[in-house]
Amino acid sequence: xxxxxxxxxxxxxxxxxxxxxxxxxxxxxxxxxxxxxxxxxxxxxxxxxxxxxxxxxxxxxxxxxxxxxxxxxxxxxxxxxxxxxxxxxxxxxxxxxxxxxxxxxxxxxxxxxxxxxxxxxxxxxxxxxxxxxxxxxxxxxxxxxxxxxxxxxxxxxxxxxxxxxxxxxxxxxxxxxxxxxxxxxxxxxxxxxxxxxxxxxxxxxxxxxxxxxxxxxxxxxxxxxxxxxxxxxxxxxxxxxxxxxxxxxxxxxxxxxxxxxxxxxxxxxxxxxxxxxxxxxxxxxxxxxxxxxxxxxxxxxxxxxxxxxxxxxxxxxxxxxxxxxxxxxxxxxxxxxxxxxxxxxxxxxxxxxxxxxxxxxxxxxxxxxxx
Length: 371
Hints:
Helix content: 25-40%
Distance between the termini: 37 Å
Low-confidence stretches: none
Number of strands: 17
Strand content: 15-25%
Structural class: alpha/beta
Mean pLDDT: 94
């Protein structure tokens, strides 16, 4: 990727052509299935790209007042807001700008519904008590989870309830979703005809090459034939930005301590916290499964565990080489921290014209303002 040879690093680069290709595929799914697709801001919130995304998707889902404001002000379409618990002052602001407000508990629903019922459509998140083979930190429906209301607690549907929200998937296929639909109908079929909408959450791998999109479309069409009163929503983020961007770093130093170590100008602690959570090393451009030159790629913070993993290369690395981490648009950017006073990575767009534009650079003032 010689195009990054002269770019200042670290930098996230969002590639608009690939993003638009994903969006066109998602728009086709919307058209054929009748489902509305929302951008989940918790995974991707680069608002410079919203003018493109909003041409295809129906709105955005938010999990805080700041995200709701971002969706309302920059996306300018539907805004669906959920939080594990709302502060009353913030909720009153959220309700004014949200299409739906989704409560996590019956206690908060009963507390706040009378205060916002004239402003927005109110719903509840439910917990189906079903789990798939997914990382525990992504499993919202595991035992003793704080997310959602159990079916047994909903024997009497609260007054004014207009929708339900369920999130049970994590980067899974349409057959897992089919299991969710079956379980959902078993528990709530008697209430579905009374509602206006159903949000089936995120975790749908629509843009991965092995995802069976026709099966998804079939599931959704059959479901809507049973419940024509329902508007159906899904809210992915990874699927929207799949393979649409990279994180570019530079080799700052090479050291040897039993193994060869390349210290980069990026940090797991600052720029890619998902590595710590998932313990899965990110894919690096031009790295191989084996080879003559193996390097431990490490970050430049003072945390001992700031390591990306071991990578093999065809040629030896030298100071100044660029390291390109692939598929980094989802979660990495929005999770960036200020640990050690290290700046978040700059943000750039590679436009539809192929030109690279840096749209955000971070400085000491940004670090200072956070503390």
